[in-house]
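Example record used in the benchmark description.
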Amino acid sequence: MKILDRYIIKTMAFYTSAVMLVWLGIYTFFNFLKEVKYIGRADYTVFEATKYVISDIPAVVYSHSSVIILLGSLLALGHLASTSQLVVIRSAGVSIMQISNIVVRVALMFIAIVIFIGELIAPITTEYAEGSRAKALGKNMTFKNQQGFWLKDNGLFIHVKKNFNGKSFKDVTLIKLRAPDTLDSIVHSDSAIANGDNLELGQSVHYQLGKNGNLITFSENNFEKYSVQVSFNQKLIKSLKKDPRELSTWHLYQQIRFLTMNNLAADVFEVEIYKRLMKPVTLIAMILFSMLFVFGSLRDASLGKKIFLGLMMSLFFELSSRIGGVLSLKFDYNHFFSASIPTLVVLVFVWVLLKKKSAT
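Model output (C-alpha cells):
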C-alpha cells in the first residue's frame, strides 16, 4: 500500500503543480497588464510593476488554492482512469474507499502547505508589494499593514494601529512638527473617528514639548475629546481599510475579539473566519463529490465529460457555500451553521454514496 500511496501522491503532485503553474501564469499576465497603465508615473517602472506582480503570487496561490487543488486532483484521477490504472488498482483488491482515503490524505497535505503559504508568507509579501508600489507611485501613504497605517499630512504624522472600517480607528497617535526637524507635540488616544475634514479623537493624552522640541521639558494634559483638522482626501482613509479576505486568520480572530468585547458588529469577520475554518472540509467534499463521476460507468458518457460535469457541480457547490455566507449577513443567520451545515451535509451524503459504490 505504501508503494501505491507514493504513486498516487506523485501523480497528484505532478498534475496539481502543472495546474498551479498554468493558473499563475495566466493570472500574473493579466495582473501585469493592469499595472501597465501606471508605468511611467512618478518612479513606477517596468521593474517595479514586475516586482509587485511577483510579490503578489503567494496571495494568489492561497486565494485560489481550492480550485487549483480540485483541478489537480481530478486531472490526476482522470489520468489514472483513462489509462486503466484505476481498473488495475481495483483488481488488485484496493477498494474505492481506500483510494478515496489516499486522495483525501494527499489533498490535506497540499492544504497544509497552502495554509502555511497563506498565513505566514503571503501577508509579508503582500505588505511589501503594496508598500513598494505606493512608494514608487509617490502616494502619501508611507506604510500600511494588516492592522493599521502611517499617514503624513503636511506637518502632521498620523499612526493608526487598528483600522476597522476606514472611519473608526483604535490606538491613534498624532505627531505634530513645529519645523521639518523639530517636534511640537504628541497626542495619543485609544479611539478616533474620521469625520469629514476632522479627525475626532476620544479621551486623549497631549504631550506639549519645549520650544526646541526638547523631550526633557514637556507638559502633559488630558482631554475628554480632541479634534484635529486634516487636509487629505477622505477617500484615501477609506481605501486603507483592509478587506477581511486580506487579513490572516490570527488577525481576524483579534478583530472579532476586540469588536465583540466593545459590543460592535463583527459579522463580516466572523463569516470570513468560519469560511476559512471550513475551507479544508469544503475542498475534501468537492473532491469526493467529483470522484463519484470518475468511478462511474463509461457507457453513458465519456470520462472527459464526467470529469467536466463533476468539476462544474463541485464549483457550483462552493459558489453556493459562499452565497450562504452572504445570505447569513443579509438575514442575520447563525454564521457558523450557514458556513458548516451545507458542507457537512454534502460530505456525509458523498461519503455514503462512495461507500455503497465501494461495496459493489
